[in-house]
Amino acid sequence: MAIGLAVVLIRYVYDVLHHGTNTYQRLRVNLGRVILLGLEILIVGDIIRSILVDTSVQSVLVLGLIVVIRTVLSFALEVEISGSWPWQQHRTTEDRLDAA
Description:
This protein is an all-alpha fold and 100 residues long. The chain is built from 4 helices and no strands. It holds the Pfam family DUF1622.
């Protein structure tokens, strides 16, 4: 995540210097994508750790709770990035194309 953050910030500085318009929105989207990728990697790491290290019922329940929490966070972040519910993205894209 730290490398992704550095890349996003470098790109933001480049965009501000060369384009200057709509750079903040691109920064928000790119940061959101980096955070989503980090959450997905953490979920996979937790699944692998629970399978290889500790296979008790309590470990599986804790893993389930962690996955649910991170999935809700990912869902909320995706809604914040795109500005619409995931099942409405196709319809919103069509509306934008019709308006143009």
